[in-house]
Amino acid sequence: MTTSTETPSSTRRGPKHPGQRVAEWTDARLGLYKLGKSNLRKIFPDHWSFMLGEICLYSFTILILTGVYLTLFFHPSMSETVYNGPYAPLQGVRMSEAYASTMHISFEVRGGLLIRQIHHWSALIFIAGMIVHMMRVFFTGAFRKPRELNWLFGWTLLFIGMFEGFTGYSLPDDLLSGTGVRFTEGAVLSTPIVGTYLSMFLFGGEFPGHNFVPIFYSAHILLLPGIMAALLVAHLILVFYHKHTQFAGAGKTEKNVVGMPFFPIYTAKAGGFFFLVFGVIAAIAAIATINPIWTMGPYRPDQVSTGAQPDWYMGFSEGLIRVMPGWEISAWGHTLVLGVFIPLIVFPTVLIAIAVWPFLESWVTGDRGEHHLLDRPRNRPVRTGFGVAWLMLYFTLLIGGGNDLWATHFHLSIETITWSVRIGFFVVPVLSYFVTKRICLGLQRRDRDKVLHGRESGIIKRLPHGEFIEVHEPLDQTELHILTAHPQPQPLDIGPEVDENGVERKVSAVTKVRARLSRNFYGEHSQIPKPTVEEYDEITSGHGHH
Ligand code: HEM
Ligand code: HEM
After folding, report:
1. Contact 245, 372 (CB under 8 A)
2. Ligand 1 touching residue 104 (CB < 6 A)
3. Where would you tag: which of 1, 292, 350, 389 has the fewest CB atoms within 10 A of its CB?
4. What does the DSSP assignment read for 410-445?
5. If pLDDT is split at 50, 70 and 90, which confidence band does 356 have?
6. Per residue, what are the HEC states of 99-125?
7. CB of 450 closer than 6 A to ligand 1?
């Protein structure tokens, strides 16, 4: 038997503060101190574009907060009722309970209309935030190893987010949302073989049936946000685990992170930014009407509202359908509606192209290394060109999705717009790609010039013999580093086509394509050589330097 001679710490140092006792009690059960100690001082680099992910996070939080409030008053039911609320023009009109309850939220619930509008505006900003955040990650190459999986998590969040928005704006069962749901039913029906079954599962029988609002409701408030929340947590854990990327600069390497500690500086900034985002969205929602369902009226399958537009993120798929010729093939007693089915395939394909880009890029370039320093978009012209082409395609199709509004606002015929978008679908991305690539190369040349000759100061001097020159100011060391820090990898080399005996080497077609793509990515037409140390020394040591 042993006896302890240790005195409890409370008797040694006097009684413990109640706060300390609570902290110790909690820590003994949750182990938070150790977790906090190892993570709270984590360093976060600073750049304005790193706030885009935060905008997504905060708008998602606002969506959950306002969404919960809406569930308290929204009735996800398609049972018929007669409206007798305060909005006089609709009194006595038959409508679903879903529509009536959204009218109730808008006109009778205290703060209801504001919360509805905050919910809807946050949804628009949330998805816009995700696209801009995704493009920042894309253009700077932040998706490269080890962040490819996190890129996929993010991409899935965007994909699900679009459908979360779609199920949301379908809930009020007004004429506009009904028109959108009808459109979706048509798209689902065009799927060969399983289309009819899919439509029956989705709508619980014939369209519109009595069930789609409850089905969409479960998806909207439970299933999709649940999956999104899980993905989001995984996304943020991975951001923490990998540590954040940073732009090249003084003292920044592939092996360190230069910035501010997570606690207290980053948390204080992030907390303030949350309220800023909430404030801006609340201000927009308070002054700008969104989705005024009372002007649309309840959904009736025999009516369509004029100027029907989906929310902006779905305008892209709407554009595809609107400009697609109405092709149909009939075979063995079945009709394949290509006019709808092709857009249904193109929509995810275009999105998938961006999802798989990290894998495609590392395969083409043979780059298997880890990257924590970001690229400047100009130094990767092919990637930047592709990203711009993708965005321009998106915008072109958005114009197609709003062809009726463009026609009425700019006094154009629908035919003109449809044909412009059809041609634009093929031409605009290609043109944007080449223009962007040229701009990037131009910027690379300018960087090279700045390193070798300094910055143009705008000061003109006249030399004794009469010549006018502009004084160039040399760059400081940090600027020189930023302009020259990027590696310039060489394209893949597949070796000579014939071996030393003159016999043709067997090179697979795939390897040839890969080498060609790699030349396109890193070849002489895609990067302007950085100034070498010798070039720099020669110019700055005397002659040639103004
Ligand atoms: C990423 C998340 C979300 C997005 C993008 C989103 C989007 C939308 C949109 C666009 C509407 C139509 C609003 C309108 O009437 O003008 C809506 C309605 C609704 N949302 Fe969400 N939502 C999200 C999350 C949630 C969550 C988490 C809940 C509940 C916990 C929720 C509950 C509701 C309800 C009850 C409605 C119907 C009421 C109404 O239309 O006013 N939402 N949602
Ligand atoms: C619900 C939506 C999303 C939220 C809340 C979110 C949040 C964040 C946050 C807070 C960061 C760190 C700060 C920053 O770099 O901005 C981040 C980083 C990142 N996100 Fe997202 N994100 C979302 C969607 C996406 C999407 C759509 C993609 C791409 C398809 C993506 C890919 C990434 C990647 C690769 C990083 C690491 C970047 C780096 O370390 O530089 N995220 N995300």
Report:
1. yes
2. no
3. 1
4. HT--HHHHHHHHHHHHHHHHHHHHHHHHHHHHHHHH
5. very high
6. HHHHHHHHHCCCCHHHHHHHHHHHHHH
7. no
The rounded Å distance from CA 67 to ligand 1 centre is: 5
Q: Which atom of ligand 1 is nearest to the CA of 161?
A: 1
Q: The complex's ipTM?
A: 0.95
The residue extents of the domains of the chain are 41-313, 450-496+504-540
Tokens 């001082």 map to which residue? 41
pLDDT at 535 over 50: yes
- State the closest ligand 1 atom to the C-alpha of 126, by its place in the atom list counted from 1: 5
The reported pTM is 0.93
Q: At what angle do helices 148-170 and 338-355 cross, to 10 degrees?
A: 140
With tokens 């003994």, the residue in question is 28
Measured in Å, residue 329 CA sits from the centre of ligand 2 at: 43
How does 446-461 read in b/e, with b if 16+ C-beta sit within 10 Å?
A: ebbebbbbbeeeeeee
Q: Which residues of 18-41 are buried (b: 16+ CB within 10 A; e: fewer)?
A: eeeeeeeeeeeeeeeeeeeeeeee
Grouping H, G, I as helix, E, B as strand and the rest as coil, residue 247 is: strand
Report the separation in Å between the CA atom of 133 and the middle of ligand 2, taken as the mean of its atom positions: 6
| For ligand 2, atom 11: residue with the closest CA | 53
- Secondary element (H or E) of residue 268: helix 267-287
Pick the CATH number of 41-313 from 3.40.30.10, 3.30.70.1560, 3.40.50.300, 1.20.810.10: 1.20.810.10
Give the three-class secondary structure for 201.
helix
d(CA 460, CA 453): 15
Which of 81-95, 171-185, 279-293 bottoms out in mean pLDDT, i.e. has the lowest? 171-185
